[in-house]
Known about the structure:
Layout: H1 4-16, E1 38-42, E2 45-48, E3 53-56, H2 71-81, H3 92-104, E4 110-114, H4 117-132, E5 136-140, H5 158-161, H6 172-175, E6 178-181, H7 186-195, E7 200-205, H8 221-232, E8 235-239, H9 251-255, E9 262-265, E10 276-280, H10 282-285, H11 304-319, H12 322-344, E11 350-354, E12 357-361, H13 370-375, H14 378-390, E13 393-394, E14 403-404, H15 411-430
Parallel strand pairs: 3-13, 5-6, 5-7, 7-8, 8-9
Antiparallel strand pairs: 1-2, 2-3, 4-10, 9-10, 11-12, 12-14
Helix pairs in contact: 2-11, 3-11, 7-8, 12-15, 14-15
Bound molecules: pyridoxal-5'-phosphate (PLP).
Pyridoxal-5'-phosphate is lined by residues 116-118, 121, 144-146, 206, 210-211, 239, 241-242, 266, 276.
Amino acid sequence: xxxxxxxxxxxxxxxxxxxxxNSPVRAFRHVGGTxxxxxxxxxxxxxxxxxxxxxxxxxxxxxxxxxxxxxxxVRAIQQQAEHSTSFGAPTELEVLMAEQIIRMVPGIDQxxxxxxxxxxxxxxxxxxxxxxxxNKMIKFEGCYHGHxxxxxxxxxxxxxxxxxxxxxxxxxxxxxxxxxxxxNNLQAVDLLLxxxxxEIAALIVEPVAGNMGCIPPExxxxxxxxxxxxxxxxxxxxxxxxxxxxxxxxxxxxxxxxDADLITFGKIIGGGxxxxxxxxxxxxxxxxxxxxxxxxAGTLSGNPLAMIAGYTLLRELDLNRHIYxxxxxxxxxxxxxxxxxxxxxxxxxxxxxxxxxxSVFFTEYPVRDFQAAKAAGNELFKQFFHAMLRRGIYLPPxxxxxxxxxxxxxxxxxxxTIQAAGESIREVFEHPAGRA
Length: 436
Ligand SMILES: *Cc1c(COP(=O)(O)O)cnc(C)c1O
């Protein structure tokens, strides 16, 4: 595979963009090498600037659940663009979008649209603090809730990938209000609740973690969190930026039968355009300005292009719910195939799979939390990643990111991926670390 054009572009990019990218994980810092610069994509495939084709398991980190350039969404965007791309005034589309979200996700009354998952989570925390009059919050090690100051404590995703212990620029006075517990550990939460009784505004959790690799919740974990929040008057926030409209039409709230106070959305909700949202109970949501005094605003919030893209995609998902079974089946086929290839090669491994999310960890121990994810054979992952890339399989360039399966991925694509994985793992073993 030739990467000449990508190498040239990456060199050029590094002169004018910090690190050459507009979001850190894209830079391949963890796995090394040059990131392919993408020229176009269609369905399950990415095409880079050198004309290489890849089967895509990043899918823009989640949004492209139907695959790239999904025609109904593309057409809707084209048509809307003719009518102007922004007004800064209310539109019918925003009403349709809010109603669509409320129809699909059980237990929420109102929705506020924002421009990213970061903004959604930042708003949720401010709202919880404004509503309760308290400052502290609980989050979990390895979970990522965007890059707002309060969340950059023991964060997953790029913070984990770059192994940043403490983010410079986050004031200690802000970080000290963020309490951290290991994922899947209710006892640790109980200790925090005891030590900080009456001080906690909110608890935020990824219902299926996807930013330390994919780590599903153990039975009773989410229910236990919800019950503790209700008992202590703590605002229970599900961060469904990743899981929303992915693990089920109504996300984790529906899948696990939860009743969160607030839910944050992003990724799929924008159909590939920059969108986030916060949904929740009227009693809390009504504190957002202008209904209440918890201020939040956005010049481009509810942007018509983003609304039509998201609305079109959500409607497709809503009307074709069989999509979710197919996605889960495909992803299970992939997991089974990988399992058998790794086993044949004699590699210790764990495959965590949940709906259309999947992660590979090279370890003999089950991976239930961030410590376990960090302790896995991440050197081996780097080599495996590059061996796969050379075979035209585009994986997330970090073991701390989930793979995403799209509906455009065919059985033949899955077979090709499994075969590539078998070849890759054997290649890595024949040329061990440093000599590959
Ligand atoms: C991606 C992600 C975010 C941040 O969303 P952005 O749109 O990247 O700001 C927040 N929470 C979770 C769970 C995510 O996966």
